[in-house]
Design goal:
single chain; 2 helices; 44% helix; 28% strand
Length: 116
């Protein structure tokens, strides 16, 4: 009987540890992305940067000619930093509900090239 309770206790402990890792893992990704992509604020056309778990929103004004390179570099740097897919959306700085384009990096490569 005690062996059964011990096995049940271990299974509950594994479940709790896994659940806590999943819940807290998202915010950890966001923190790492915020640190690794802080350089985006140094680009003159970038007016704001917002992070949501593994998604990065960049507000620009005016639209730089090399925005595809900026977005893809951010996606790749973020992907390498968190070892998880990173989505980058580029918005007009004055209207975050619209977007110019987006890109995604997974498994160390650009899986969705920049564009709409």
């Amino acid at each position: 009987m005690t062996k059964r309770y011990w096995i049940i206790g271990v299974l509950i402990l594994v479940f709790v540890v896994t659940f806590v890792g999943i819940v807290w893992g998202g915010s950890n990704r966001q923190t790492i992305l915020e640190r690794e992509l802080a350089y985006l604020q140094d680009i003159p056309e970038v007016k704001w940067v917002r992070f949501e778990d593994n998604t990065v929103h960049i507000g620009v004004s005016p639209l730089p000619g090399d925005i595809a390179i900026i977005a893809q570099a951010a996606a790749m740097i973020g992907n390498k930093a968190i070892n998880f897919g990173v989505h980058v959306w580029v918005h007009p700085a004055n209207n975050p509900n619209k977007f110019y384009g987006e890109t995604t990096a997974r498994y160390g490569k650009i899986s969705d090239p920049y564009g709409k």
